[in-house]
Design goal:
Elements (H helix, E strand, L loop, with lengths): L10 H8 L3 H8 L7 H14 L5 H4 L1 H4 L3 E7 L10 H16 L3 E7 L6 H12 L3 E4 L7 H8 L5 E4 L9 E4 L2 H14 L5 E5 L5 H16 L9 E3 L4 H12 L7 E4 L2 H13 L9 E3 L5 H5 L6 E3 L2 H14 L6 E3 L3 E3 L11
Parallel strand pairs: 1-2, 1-3, 3-4, 4-5, 5-11, 6-7, 6-8, 8-9
Antiparallel strand pairs: 10-12
Helix pairs in contact: 1-2, 1-3, 2-3, 6-14, 7-8, 9-10, 11-12
Length: 346
Amino acid sequence: MGQQTTTRATIFDVAQRASVSIKTVSRVVNREPNVRDKTRQKVEQAIAELQYRPDSSARNLARQRSHLIGLIYDDPAAYELPSSGYIIRMQQGALRACRERMHELLIHPCNPRERGVGATLRNLIESARLAGVVLAPPLSNMTRLVRAIQETGTPFVRISPGLKVRNDRCVATNDLEISADMVDHLASLGHERIAFISGDDTHLAVGNRYDGYREGLRRNGLKLIPELVVAGDNSFDSGAAAARQLLGLDARPTAVFCANDDMAAGVVRAASKLGVSIPDQISVTGFDDIVMARQMDPRLTTIRQPLARMTERAVKMLLQGDGSDLFECIPAELKIRESTGPAPRY
């Protein structure tokens, strides 16, 4: 009869059993100060019950960490038409904060669709001896990746995880509220048939933009019309396809709100090919304020997501060293340009 194998307990299991954060378990394991006696006893009891044995490399990480911050983001090479502006703005913010604190930045594209991605991420963190990790969306709401970082005991901050998370630090923007404000803007121009093109449903923060669209309709006394809500996947091509569907309706919309700028650019292209004038016959808006939004003709009305400021703040949270659990919201802002105008009178 063969030997029975058991799954080795992780730092995540100990934290769950003791009802504390991963950071607290790491402090107890490394015999750091500023842990209450009652909390320390709970953690030590959980360690004993689970027979947890910390990996020596992870245990010594706090003492051996380099002056290096990791920015982990979704690999743009995995997409047919990648958008580089989003990543560049995050890098700019992270670099500003790193330079202020005499740290360096390691950037790592990560494809969450690959097998073994969690183990790859753990190996990166431990081999580079990262002082901290900034996890960008949509990776920031993927449990297996968050857990992989937690198991190393390395401090991390999530950017726009789409919801408030307990015991983890995160920086977000007000996706829902600012999206409702965009609907307010369109309604103030007389638009009543306002369409929405949603993004990739793995991006929880992008899902909040749809909730904001619905809230904006509600507070302007407008009905949610199911045929005016079309699913996209954050890409230019999906925006163009959604636009062709919407513009083919007998009662087509007079305005389209897209969950990101890439899809909005696809709408503008499709409308142009169909001979539909923007904004005279249809208004188009986006979200993010990528460089292309200001280069299009007409220039795109959109929402400026403060990505650089969010990433800068995330790095500063890591380097504060206070171990606190924080949530910070940095507001986005409307950028009204030429792609929106009064609703047409048919």
